[in-house]
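Complex record, two chains
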Amino acid sequence: MLELILLFLVVGAGTGGELCVSHAMKTLGEVHDFRPAALMQFARRAARVGSMWAGIGLMTLAFFSLLAMLSMENVSFVVPVTALSYAAGAIGAAMFLRERISRQRWLGVLVVCLGVTLVWLSRR
Amino acid sequence: MKNSAGLHLKTYLFLLFIVLFAPLGNVLLSKGMKGVGPAKGWEPRGLFHVLSGVFASGYIWLGIGCLLAFFLAYMLVLTWADYSYVQPASSVSYAVVAILGLLLLGEKVNLLRWSGIGVICLGVFIVGHTHPRTTEKT
């Protein structure tokens, strides 16, 4: 039961955090200059976006949940089952980021989820 | 589309960073957490003991370093590529993490788990043949 709660936190908070960060990065625009000074300036601009901080908070929660799972199970099991976030991510991207997800991309996400199911079954 | 080849090349380069740093970071975290051990309960003293073990572990700090490198690459790639493209494409790291778990941590990975990872990679292949950006440039 504890592992299921932790998995929910890893997937839910992790995906929510990534969506928030993705929203913030899209607000900031594409990076063209990769010099350290320009990247630092970009980081300062990013720090002024609210959804960036919400994303970092959620991802921190997901990170500590992942650490708790890793203390109980093998990494070759824990990391693949967290790919459940693919379904949540695709739905969230379509709903909140207005990304147009093609039928082919949905198929890919579905196949990835099938793989995650097999990994889950391999635990028994 | 204009600059399409350049966009794909740049995207694949950053995806390479993502699939190397994320699995290595997770393997190091796993090594560190196996040393710390699971929390025995929700009492503040027990949780404090686990947290002190986490912050005192060199493996965990190395893992965090790798994950920060992954996070930087991930954030940068999200400025031009769709989240729904980057997230599935980065799932190659699931295969890499199992290989590293087997080689570095001596984990037993059975046939069903390898099959699941293979199916995940097939999903990645399908997603990889869609265009990285479906939204208008802001």
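Note: The radius of gyration of chain B is 18 Å.
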